[in-house]
Automatic annotation (TrEMBL):
Protein name (record): N-acetyltransferase
Taxonomic path: Bacteria, Bacillati, Actinomycetota, Actinomycetes, Kitasatosporales
GO molecular function, one term: acyltransferase activity, transferring groups other than amino-acyl groups
Family annotation (PROSITE patterns): GNAT
Annotated Pfam families: Acetyltransf_1
Coiled coil: none
Keywords associated with the record: Acyltransferase, Transferase
CDD domains: NAT_SF
Record organism: Streptomyces griseoviridis
Domain N-acetyltransferase residues, every copy: 17-164
Amino acid sequence: MTRWTITPESPGSPAATALWRAYYTEVSDRWYLRHEGRRTDPAELARETARVTGAELAPPAGRLLVARWAGEPAGTAGVRLLDAARAELTRVYVAPALRGRGGAALLVGAAEAAARELGAARIVLDTRGDLVEARALYARLGYREIPAYNDDPYAEHWFGKELLTRCA
C-alpha cells in the first residue's frame, strides 16, 4: 500500500525547487486567468520563483516539509516564526494528480508539529478568495478567520489556530 512520507528538506533542494515552481505556477495562473484572462508569463515565473527562494523556511526559524507519494515528491508545507509566539503556515501544496488522498491534511499536521517544535503557540496563514479548496481545508482542520496580520497585496483571508501542546 502506498503511503505518504513527510520529511524536512532544504528549500533549495531539487524536489523543493520543483514543487515551489509547480505551486507558484498554479496559484499565479489562477490569478491571471481570473483577472486578465491569461496564464503566467514564463519570464515572470522564472523571475519570481528565483527571487522568492524560501530561505525563511530554513532552520533555525523555519521548516520546509516535503511530502512524497511512492517515493516521489508530491507536496510541500512550510512554517516560519513571525515572533516568539506565532508561526506562519505557507506553501501548502499537493500535486493535482494526488489530491484527495489525505496529503494536504498530513502536511498541515506536520507543519503544526514543526511550529510547536519552533516554540510557537499559535499558527497563522493568509490565502486568496479564489483558493476555495485551501480555505475549506483550513476550516476543516480547525482554523478560524482572524483580522489581517500582514499587508500582502494578494491576501484576502487570514486564518489562525492555537497550537495545543501534544502529550507524550
